[in-house]
Each structure stands twice: as structure tokens, then as C-alpha cells.
Amino acid sequence: MNNEIWKAYSHGMAAALQEGGVYVSAMLLRTYSQLGITDTEAMLLLQIMVYMEADMNDFPTPEELAERMGLTVNEVGQSLGRLMKDEFLTIDEYVDNVTGMQSERYNWTGWLLKASSLSAEQKRESRKAERQPIRQPQAPASDLFSVFEQEFGRLLSPIECETISGWLDHDRYTDEIIRFALKEAVFAGKLSLRYIDRILIEWSRNRVTNADEARAHAQKFRGGRG
What's the CATH code of the domain at 155? Predict the structure, then answer.
């Protein structure tokens, strides 16, 4: 049994080698979808290559292509039309050296050029990304702590750090609004987190979400108080 399988495999390989093959660049297979070519259209282009390089048929008819691919002639015609419209495929006219008659043949140079251009652009972008220095993401909470310590003129206590973190993580106050509340506390001469917390709560009740709205609210408050 093993010998029979091996013989069948050997005969199959020999037949395949005698049939010949078609070289297809990996670049074409990697990029065809990104170029907007459908799977059916890609297979159609490959079948045209097989006809030209293995079957010595430079201009297979839509009927021949349809039979090989299991499609209708109309479907093949539509796919060929789109490939030629988008300049992936063209038809060249030439004079046959043997018969002296004018003939036609398919030319997929357009596909090669578009795939090469896309591949080169992708490589350029990849090299550009590799050359760019990796920027360490900033930690807004740490920066915010530093701002508070600078205004308070001292290091923050663990409880104070936890309070500020709670504003960001639990209460969902933005970094911008917390910084502006700190400025308001400095302006009022009341440097305490409790006072800043009251400011933030007041703004939250009044749907204040950014520095511009906070500034307008503060000016209105000061005007009413005056």
C-alpha cells in the first residue's frame, strides 16, 4: 500500500513538473486586496498568466476564461472591463513574426507597477516609523501632582495624592478643569484640597466641563458677590 501511494505521488510530481508553472511575485499576492482587486479578479489575472506562459495562448477568450474559472462569460467580461478601466490590465496589439498577421495579447504591467508603487510606499513608511524616536507617554497625574506641589510650596501627602487621583479616576474631572480649580483657589488665597473639591462640585452641578466655562462661571460668581 505504501509503495502504491509513493508511486502515485511520484507520477503526480512528474506530471506537474512536465506541465510547467507560472512565477507569481509574492508582492502581487500581498497587495492585490489593498489595490482594490477582488479575489475573483486576482484569480482572473493569474489565469491569464497561465494561458500566456504555460498554455502559449496570449489572448484567451472570455469563454475560455469562464470555463476554467467556473464563471459565466458575462461575469468574466465585467471583471475584465473593470481591470482594464483601472489600468491593471491592457490589451497590446502586435504583428506576429511567424504569420505576419496583427494579433492581440494581454499585458498586466499595470498591475505590476501599481503593486510595486504600493509596496515601495509601505516600505518607506515602515522605515520612517523605525527612524522616529519612541516618545514615552506622559503621565498627566504625575504632572498634576507636580503643579499642586509647586503651588502649595511643599510635597503632597499620600492622602492628598489619593484625593487628586480620585478626582481623575472616580469623579472623572478632566486635568484641565482641576488645574483651573487650583488657579481659582490660589486667586482666593485658599490653598486646600477641601476648598478645591467644593469648587469642582459646584462646577459639576452647573455642568461646567472646561476651562472656558469655568472662567465664565467664576466671573459671574465674583460679579454677583460684588
Answer: 1.10.10.630
Confirm whether 133 is domain-assigned: no
Of the candidates 39, 61, 36, the residue with the CA atom closest to the CA atom of residue 51: 61
Residues 48 and 112 grouped into a single domain = yes
Total number of domains constituting the chain: 2
**Is residue 156 within 8 Å of 142, Cβ to Cβ?**
no
76 touches 62 (CB < 8 A):
yes
Alpha helices in the chain (DSSP H): 2-19, 26-31, 39-53, 62-69, 73-85, 109-131, 140-152, 158-169, 175-188, 193-205, 211-225
Residue 102, helix vs strand vs coil:
strand
DSSP codes, 50-85: HHHHTS--SS--HHHHHHHHT--HHHHHHHHHHHHH
Residue 34 lies in a domain: yes
- Residue 196 domain boundaries: 140-220
Strand partners, 93: 104
Are 112 and 150 members of one domain? Answer: no
In a domain, 111, yes or no: yes
CB 119 within 8 A of CB 27: yes
User: 145-183: per-residue pLDDT in tens?
Assistant: 888 989 988 888 888 888 898 898 888 889 899 999 999
- 50 and 138 Cβ atoms separated by less than 8 Å: no
